[in-house]
Amino acid sequence: MILLFVFSFVFLLLSKILKINVENTKERHKIQDGKIEYSDLDKPAKSLFSKKYRISGKPDYIVKKGGNIIPVELKSGNYNTPQKNHIFQLAAYCHLVEENYGVFVPYGVLVYNNSYSFNIKFDPSIRFELENTIVKMRNILKKGKTDSVNIDYNKCKTCSMKKYCK
Fold first, then answer.
1. pTM above 0.90, yes or no
2. How far is CA 35 from the centre of its chain?
Protein backbone atom coordinates (compact mmCIF):
# COMPACT_ATOMS: atom_id res chain seq x y z
CA MET A 1 0.00 0.00 0.00
CA ILE A 2 2.83 2.42 0.89
CA LEU A 3 4.63 1.46 -2.31
CA LEU A 4 1.53 2.36 -4.35
CA PHE A 5 1.29 5.72 -2.55
CA VAL A 6 4.99 6.49 -3.21
CA PHE A 7 4.65 5.48 -6.86
CA SER A 8 1.56 7.71 -7.24
CA PHE A 9 3.31 10.63 -5.60
CA VAL A 10 6.40 10.28 -7.84
CA PHE A 11 4.20 10.01 -10.93
CA LEU A 12 2.25 13.16 -9.93
CA LEU A 13 5.47 15.05 -9.27
CA LEU A 14 6.97 14.02 -12.65
CA SER A 15 3.81 15.03 -14.51
CA LYS A 16 3.87 18.49 -12.87
CA ILE A 17 7.55 18.93 -13.78
CA LEU A 18 6.82 17.91 -17.38
CA LYS A 19 3.91 20.37 -17.58
CA ILE A 20 6.12 23.21 -16.30
CA ASN A 21 8.86 22.29 -18.82
CA VAL A 22 6.34 22.30 -21.70
CA GLU A 23 4.95 25.69 -20.61
CA ASN A 24 8.47 27.14 -20.32
CA THR A 25 9.41 25.82 -23.77
CA LYS A 26 6.23 27.27 -25.30
CA GLU A 27 6.93 30.64 -23.69
CA ARG A 28 10.62 30.66 -24.66
CA HIS A 29 9.81 29.91 -28.31
CA LYS A 30 6.65 32.08 -28.41
CA ILE A 31 4.48 29.12 -29.38
CA GLN A 32 0.88 30.27 -29.42
CA ASP A 33 -1.70 28.85 -27.05
CA GLY A 34 -4.17 26.43 -28.58
CA LYS A 35 -4.12 23.15 -30.43
CA ILE A 36 -1.60 22.87 -33.27
CA GLU A 37 -3.58 21.80 -36.34
CA TYR A 38 -0.73 21.86 -38.87
CA SER A 39 3.04 22.15 -38.64
CA ASP A 40 5.85 22.50 -41.15
CA LEU A 41 8.45 22.73 -38.38
CA ASP A 42 9.26 19.15 -37.40
CA LYS A 43 8.59 17.45 -40.76
CA PRO A 44 7.62 18.75 -44.21
CA ALA A 45 3.90 19.47 -44.41
CA LYS A 46 1.60 19.53 -47.42
CA SER A 47 1.44 22.89 -49.21
CA LEU A 48 -1.82 24.78 -49.06
CA PHE A 49 -3.13 25.89 -52.48
CA SER A 50 -5.48 28.71 -53.49
CA LYS A 51 -7.63 28.14 -56.57
CA LYS A 52 -8.69 31.80 -56.47
CA TYR A 53 -5.17 33.30 -56.63
CA ARG A 54 -3.22 30.27 -57.89
CA ILE A 55 -0.70 30.55 -55.07
CA SER A 56 0.57 27.99 -52.60
CA GLY A 57 2.50 28.07 -49.38
CA LYS A 58 3.26 26.44 -46.06
CA PRO A 59 2.96 28.46 -42.86
CA ASP A 60 5.28 27.31 -40.09
CA TYR A 61 2.28 26.16 -38.11
CA ILE A 62 -1.46 26.68 -37.71
CA VAL A 63 -3.06 26.81 -34.29
CA LYS A 64 -6.73 26.45 -33.34
CA LYS A 65 -7.46 28.99 -30.64
CA GLY A 66 -10.82 30.08 -29.27
CA GLY A 67 -12.75 28.80 -32.28
CA ASN A 68 -10.36 30.47 -34.75
CA ILE A 69 -7.69 28.90 -36.94
CA ILE A 70 -4.59 31.09 -36.94
CA PRO A 71 -1.48 30.78 -39.16
CA VAL A 72 1.84 31.47 -37.43
CA GLU A 73 5.03 32.42 -39.24
CA LEU A 74 8.45 32.35 -37.54
CA LYS A 75 11.10 34.76 -38.82
CA SER A 76 14.75 35.22 -38.00
CA GLY A 77 16.02 38.68 -37.25
CA ASN A 78 15.55 41.14 -34.45
CA TYR A 79 12.78 43.39 -35.69
CA ASN A 80 10.75 45.37 -33.21
CA THR A 81 8.07 46.11 -35.82
CA PRO A 82 6.54 43.79 -38.42
CA GLN A 83 8.22 44.01 -41.84
CA LYS A 84 5.99 44.72 -44.87
CA ASN A 85 7.15 41.69 -46.86
CA HIS A 86 6.54 39.43 -43.84
CA ILE A 87 3.05 40.91 -43.40
CA PHE A 88 2.22 40.06 -47.03
CA GLN A 89 3.55 36.54 -46.66
CA LEU A 90 1.41 36.09 -43.55
CA ALA A 91 -1.61 37.62 -45.35
CA ALA A 92 -1.16 35.05 -48.12
CA TYR A 93 -1.12 32.30 -45.47
CA CYS A 94 -4.29 33.74 -43.91
CA HIS A 95 -5.98 33.54 -47.31
CA LEU A 96 -4.69 30.00 -47.90
CA VAL A 97 -6.03 28.89 -44.51
CA GLU A 98 -9.42 30.47 -45.23
CA GLU A 99 -9.70 28.77 -48.60
CA ASN A 100 -8.39 25.37 -47.49
CA TYR A 101 -10.14 25.15 -44.12
CA GLY A 102 -13.35 26.97 -45.13
CA VAL A 103 -13.15 29.34 -42.15
CA PHE A 104 -12.78 33.06 -41.50
CA VAL A 105 -9.26 33.99 -40.34
CA PRO A 106 -9.28 37.20 -38.26
CA TYR A 107 -5.50 37.49 -37.90
CA GLY A 108 -2.18 35.72 -38.22
CA VAL A 109 0.89 35.83 -35.98
CA LEU A 110 4.45 36.87 -36.87
CA VAL A 111 7.17 35.78 -34.43
CA TYR A 112 10.65 37.28 -34.80
CA ASN A 113 13.72 35.44 -33.58
CA ASN A 114 11.64 33.97 -30.75
CA SER A 115 11.61 37.43 -29.12
CA TYR A 116 8.84 39.57 -30.58
CA SER A 117 5.36 38.41 -31.47
CA PHE A 118 2.81 40.42 -33.49
CA ASN A 119 -0.84 39.69 -34.22
CA ILE A 120 -1.48 40.96 -37.76
CA LYS A 121 -5.15 41.60 -38.56
CA PHE A 122 -6.38 40.06 -41.80
CA ASP A 123 -8.73 42.97 -42.41
CA PRO A 124 -10.28 44.29 -45.66
CA SER A 125 -7.39 46.69 -46.37
CA ILE A 126 -4.69 43.99 -46.18
CA ARG A 127 -6.91 41.64 -48.21
CA PHE A 128 -7.24 44.29 -50.93
CA GLU A 129 -3.51 45.04 -50.86
CA LEU A 130 -2.69 41.34 -51.09
CA GLU A 131 -4.91 40.90 -54.14
CA ASN A 132 -3.37 43.97 -55.84
CA THR A 133 0.15 42.68 -55.13
CA ILE A 134 -0.67 39.30 -56.64
CA VAL A 135 -2.07 41.01 -59.76
CA LYS A 136 1.11 43.13 -60.04
CA MET A 137 3.28 40.03 -59.69
CA ARG A 138 1.30 38.23 -62.41
CA ASN A 139 1.80 41.23 -64.73
CA ILE A 140 5.56 41.16 -64.09
CA LEU A 141 5.62 37.48 -65.00
CA LYS A 142 3.63 38.17 -68.20
CA LYS A 143 5.84 41.09 -69.27
CA GLY A 144 9.03 39.30 -68.35
CA LYS A 145 10.45 42.35 -66.57
CA THR A 146 9.69 44.69 -63.73
CA ASP A 147 9.49 48.43 -63.48
CA SER A 148 11.79 50.35 -61.17
CA VAL A 149 11.89 48.90 -57.66
CA ASN A 150 13.58 49.79 -54.39
CA ILE A 151 16.70 47.70 -54.49
CA ASP A 152 18.14 45.90 -51.50
CA TYR A 153 21.10 44.08 -53.05
CA ASN A 154 21.34 41.67 -50.11
CA LYS A 155 17.82 40.44 -50.84
CA CYS A 156 18.49 40.37 -54.61
CA LYS A 157 20.98 37.52 -54.18
CA THR A 158 18.29 35.05 -53.14
CA CYS A 159 15.23 36.62 -54.78
CA SER A 160 13.20 34.28 -56.99
CA MET A 161 12.19 37.25 -59.16
CA LYS A 162 15.69 38.61 -59.90
CA LYS A 163 15.64 37.37 -63.50
CA TYR A 164 12.78 39.82 -64.16
CA CYS A 165 14.62 42.88 -62.80
CA LYS A 166 16.60 45.36 -64.82
1. no
2. 15
